[in-house]
Specification:
2 copies of one chain form a homodimer. With 277 residues, chain A is an alpha/beta fold. Chain A has a single domain, classed as Divalent-metal-dependent TIM barrel enzymes (TIM Barrel, Alpha-Beta Barrel). Chain A has 11 helices and 8 strands. In chain A, α3 crosses α4, α4 runs parallel beside α5 and α8 packs parallel to α9. Chain A starts with a helix and ends with a helix. The interface between A and B is medium-sized, with 27 and 27 residues.
Amino acid sequence: MSVSSLTGLSRLCLHTITTRPWNIEQAADHYASAGVKGITVWRDALEGRNVSQTGQMLRDHDLTIVSLCRGGFFASKDSVKRKETLDDNRRAIGEAYELGTNKMLLVCGADPRQSLEDSRKQIFEGIAAILPEAVAAGIRLAVEPLHPMYADTRSAINTLKQANDMDDALDSSNVGVAVDVYHVWWDPELESEIARCGRQGHLLAFHISDWKIPTTDLLNDRGLMGEGCIPLRKIRSWVESAGFNGFIEVEIFSNTYWHEDQSQFLEKIIRAFRDYA
Amino acid sequence: MSVSSLTGLSRLCLHTITTRPWNIEQAADHYASAGVKGITVWRDALEGRNVSQTGQMLRDHDLTIVSLCRGGFFASKDSVKRKETLDDNRRAIGEAYELGTNKMLLVCGADPRQSLEDSRKQIFEGIAAILPEAVAAGIRLAVEPLHPMYADTRSAINTLKQANDMDDALDSSNVGVAVDVYHVWWDPELESEIARCGRQGHLLAFHISDWKIPTTDLLNDRGLMGEGCIPLRKIRSWVESAGFNGFIEVEIFSNTYWHEDQSQFLEKIIRAFRDYA
């Protein structure tokens, strides 16, 4: 029996951005030593590195590479920018393939210079455009709805229903959705929409953190599990009832925690995962 | 022809909190001089005053008292607190009556110590409990959905669909909904839900401001109309197509603007109302 199953960590995955002060080599060492079994790699963590060697390094640490984070940002009023974004998404798919993961998160984008409807149309067209490359590389694209407070510049997809509708419209086994509790916990239709993507086998990722009271920064004030008001276990039970049995990914953006000693923060994450997730 | 119709201000209403540094007497003087025709009174502005005399003072300034802001906060895990809140809402209905308005806004409340479902049940029960007093006083209660970023402590009603569902369940001509663009602009179902409450004659209030990019504070960083990304004219057209022809209420909470000279801020509001609303 492995240490991680003894300690209940066999499904715990960390996003590299959660411990941003560490580079990916430090993250791999620390995660592995602590018994964490999964890692989701943010693209900035790969800068200046050989991607396939980095993937091997992570596997050598007995880490499963759960996802590459992230592609997307398809919406732009500027058509040249949209084309550049498609090229960048194709590069990201290549990186995911070289890294050795089969999943890529999509933060879909929004451009406040145009309507949300126009942004959504460009998101659909953007995903459709990169889908052949995703299929060829064996990468599944996870459409992640973002909290409505990010509808200005980050995503015009703000509910799981919208993500599921987008997934339906794209009609591909290489597309699915991601459920991040921080973005969707408030949604009265969350349970039914989780069941919906689960039925289709399109629930690809489950991200956790907590909503702090008060929240002092729209971007970088996420809480550790148990620190806020998100009904984490209830949402996890919905996700598991929907058939999801993959990694539970801790994705915390926090100016507060990034300023702490990251080893101590990692201990807190593991404790919070055991106690509240 | 009045000055206000000449200048297009006949439907402009200001919330007293928008110019918070002014007391209600100063607000009345300045609004009236500027040609503003409507005022929505926040309860804190009435502190230490005779309410009916204050209502008369506002009418003497040729101001229509559009609403009292606000009742609500029905959700609490603590039953004693819930009972106190009902009493306070009854007092608020009395104040609305004495003031001489026929409308009261409801910010429904949420308690992070319990589920959103429990909070919603208490909101329904709370409104039902105070409804007889509202009917007796001729006050219509406007359920205002709040942005999902306020689902922790301020409102478990976060979409216009939820507000409309609550309104349907309460089934009273003394209940309706309020549409505040700041809270609902991102919602893909906004147009259809505006049409829904309009059809029933239950669209009671329309509040405007703007969503700034970036938004630096979750509560007090609202923008002037035109400063952000809310499609104000499009939403106004939906609201008017739904049959609403009441006051257009400017409700801006802004640490930035509250620190400015309020006379200059009032000029900016009027310019922004003309140019963007």
